[in-house]
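Show me a record, fold above all:
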Amino acid sequence: MSDFVRNIRLWFAPERVREEGGTPDYRFSLANERTFLAWLRTALALIGGGFAVDQFLPDLRWAWRVGLALALLAAGVLCSLWAVNHWVRCERAMRRGEDLPASRFPVLLSLVVAVVAVAMVVVVLVGWEG
């Protein structure tokens, strides 16, 4: 079974993470949980931003409004899924005494947010009704 599939199964049975390796220092597990919660807050902010763009910019051209809203909503969904996957991967690595996993996701998320921000700058400069 691949690590990815195993990680997804652990999303729904986090107590099974304890079957691997030894118990890490509780401070590290709690820090991992705080990081998870920070990523969830980021996901909620992105989702809220997507709804805000859709609901509060009715004069914006439909394609712009829907495109920007969907980009933010998709980033929020990916962020929330990545958060739980990263939590499991880090918890497993700590229990095994391995290095914490590296991820390119923060860079990807930053790029999506930057592209949406640039698009919003264009909308502000050009005007909402184009």
